[in-house]
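C-alpha cells for Chlorophyll synthesis pathway protein BchC. Go.
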Amino acid sequence: MSSHAIIPEGKPHPADFAAKDNPAFILYDKLKTGYEEQPIPELGPDEVLVEIKKTGICGSDVHFYNTGGMGLVALEEPMCLGHESAGVLVQLGANGLVSKGVLQLGDRVALEPGVTCRMCTDCRGGCYQICEHMVFAAYPPSRGGTLQRYYKLPADLVYRLPESVGLEYGAMMEPLSVAVHAVANKGSMRTGYNVLIFGAGPVGLLAMAVAKGLGGNRIVAVDINEERLNFAKDYAATDVYIPIKPNADEPRPAYSVRAAADLLLSLGIPTRGPGSIDLVVDATGAEVCIQMGLNAIKPGGTYVQTGFGPPDIQVPMFRITTNEVQIKGGWRYGNGDYPLAIDLVNRGLVNLEPLLTHTFKFKDALEAFEITKAGKDKNGKFVIKCVIDGPE
Ligand SMILES: [Zn+2]
Ligand SMILES: [Zn+2]
C-alpha cells in the first residue's frame, strides 16, 4: 500500500519491543486511588501500541476522583484514570501503517482517546463524536484510561507530533481539540469575529487561544475569578468582564438580561451589526452564563455549549427564536479537530506553554489530582494544567 511500510501487510505484528511491566494509576472508589499491574494490551491488525510519556489532568478526571462519577455516569468497577496523553509508538498491528500510511515505530504521537464503531449513521455521517457505541478512556463503562505505561488505539487515532511540539504539549492536544471543536468546528470561527467566552479555566482559555489564533478581532473573557481573568488577559483575551452582582430576590433570567446589557455597554460592544458578538462559547455550564451569552449574542450569531452544569436550565427562548440564534452542543472533538489543534501549535498560533503550570512524576499522580481539585498548589500557586509523566 505505502512505500513507507516497515511491516509488510498481512504479517502478524512482531512482539519485538522490550515490553516492560504495565503499572496503572487506578481509582477504586471516590478519593481512593492506588497503583496496580495491568496486562500489556494485545493488538488487533489496525491498532498501535503507545508507551505513554505524558498525561494531563482534566476536570472530568478530578470529578471522577472526587465523587466517583460524572453527570449520568458512575464508576462501576476500579478504573484506570487519564485520557489526555502523548507517547511513543512501540508496536504496530499486523497492517503496519494502516490508514494514514505515515506511522513508524518510535513516532511521538498525541492520542485521541475515543474509539467509535465506524458503522452507525453518525460515524458514517462524519459525526463520530456522538456515536452511541463510543468507548472513551476513563469514562465508564470503558477499558480504562491512559495513566499506565501502555495504551492501545486504532492507528488513525494517533497523530504524529511535529518536531517543535514537546510530548507534554502533545498531551494537551486533547483539551485543545475540545476548544478547536467548539470554536472552529461548531462555532465556524472566521477571521475578524468577535467572540465571547464564559469561563477562564483550561477549556475556556484554550477556546480564547484558538479564537485568537484563527484571527479573532475581540475576544471577551467572562469569569467571576479576577485572578483567572488577569491570566486570560495576559494570555489570549482582548477584554475581560466580571459580572455585576444580582439584586436581592432578582430572578436569574432578569439578572442575566441586565448583566448581558452591562457587559456590552461597559465594553462598548454593540448589540448588532459591526463589532457585535458573532460567537459565544460557554465553558462553564452555569445557568446565568448561558442566559447571559444568549442575551449578549448578535441576531443570527452562533452559541456553542461545551461546559457542563445542571442538566436542565431556563433559556430566553423568545430571543433565540426571533433572533435566529443558533445553539449548538460541542461534545469532545470530531473529524479534523486534532490535526488543526496540532497545526495551530506547530505554527505558533496557539501557545500552550503558559497553561502548563505543574508537572509530576507517575508515582506522585495523586498530588496532581489534589492540586487540580484545589486550584492551588501547596505554595498557593495557581493551577491551570498538571501533566504527569508516564511510568519510569
Ligand atoms: Zn479532558
Ligand atoms: Zn458509530
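The first helix runs from residue 59 to 67.
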